[in-house]
Design brief:
Strand order of the largest sheet: 3-2-1-4-5
Family: Belongs to the argininosuccinate synthase family. Type 1 subfamily.
Order of helices and strands: EHEHEHHEHEHHEEEEEHEEHHHEEHH
Number of strands: 14
InterPro entries: Arginosuc_syn_C, Arginosuc_syn_N, Arginosuc_synth, Arginosuc_synth_CS, Arginosuc_synth_type_1_subfam, AS_cat/multimer_dom_body, Rossmann-like_a/b/a_fold
Number of domains: 3
CATH superfamily of the largest domain: HUPs
Structural class: alpha/beta
Subcellular location: Cytoplasm
Largest sheet: 5 strands, parallel
Number of helices: 13
Helix content: 40-55%
Subunit structure: Homotetramer.
Main location: cytoplasm
Length: about 400
Amino acid sequence: MGRAERVVLAYSGGVDTTVCIPYLKNEFGVKEVITLAADLGQGEELGPIQEKALAAGVMESLVEDLTETFITDYAFPAIQANALYENRYPLSTALARPLIAKALVAAAEKYGADAVAHGCTGKGNDQVRFDVAIAGLNPNLKVLAPAREWGMSREEAIAYGEKFGLTFPVKKSSPYSIDRNLLGRSVEAGILENPWTEPPEEVYALTKAIKDTPDEPEYIEINFEAGIPVGLNGNSLDPVELITQLNTLAGTHGIGRLDMIENRLVGIKSREIYETPALLVLIAAHRDLESLTLNANVTQYKRGIEQTYSELVYNGLWFSPLKAALDAFIQQTQARVAGTIRLKLFKGNATIVGRTSPNALYTEELATYGADDKFDHKAAEGFIYVWGLPTRIWSEKLR
């Protein structure tokens, strides 16, 4: 790999990405570093992060508010796909990576950089997501990953940074590795690395413990149009506000916690804690609305598509031909997925208790066992004979 002159670095303000700045210059021979901090609704003030990068000697410190795009172009398509990796994890962290990669590539092209960089280690999924997404968007850009190569402990990384004038405020270090955005939080490391250990309450921030949740259920209604959530309790909301309000509502009732052993792409298992209140509620509601508005064979076939879709996103293949093809299929199915889902939030559960749609395929006159029954019961006998004919012939040939 040739030497890079100008690099755009994905920047979080943490120790690793801050140390990447002098490391890129002194070990990789990079002349100019531009940092890019992405606001994905993590609730953190990014102004100080911008100043921190400038103090570390970067050519330019960029901050981009990508929150609305994150929801409309990444979260909402995942909801339409009912995307749950290993049928559990709603991809809250994974969905952010292709968006950050896209912003890195755009910045590199704008500022004439010949490489982009990130602070991912060689053990996680994010390195794959960044590297592959960048290659899918601009295969001519080099990708540099200092933390994958330097082999330093956290203490050694801090000492390296201090050699070049960087300062790291003394604070109580969290034993956990935490990633947060508007869709939720992921927590790992520390005592969580023992899968037998119950997660202490301190690891949670978006959801209440069941003992602290309200003693009365709360009913909410979510409105969908073309498979996209557009309103809550009869109020039309913009995408960011809808997710924000639903996170609070569901989190107050202890909804949205996941504790799972996850199969990482790099071949190891990891223990992950997730908090994704709004996302889990929205996927459950959307899937139920599909059961009301889609034909049986479409619904059943789409389940396999959803699994493949989830694996592609988790494995960093957002910008891939198969993902684009699945997007087209999913969008085709969503035109009539409109209506309202009613849920009861109570003690950690979001239970669907009602659904209605102008496009409902449910017909009460056919489903009822009452006096209004319009189903032709006599037709069933002939149907059953034809349907069972292959089984009858098979059985006769065995005798």
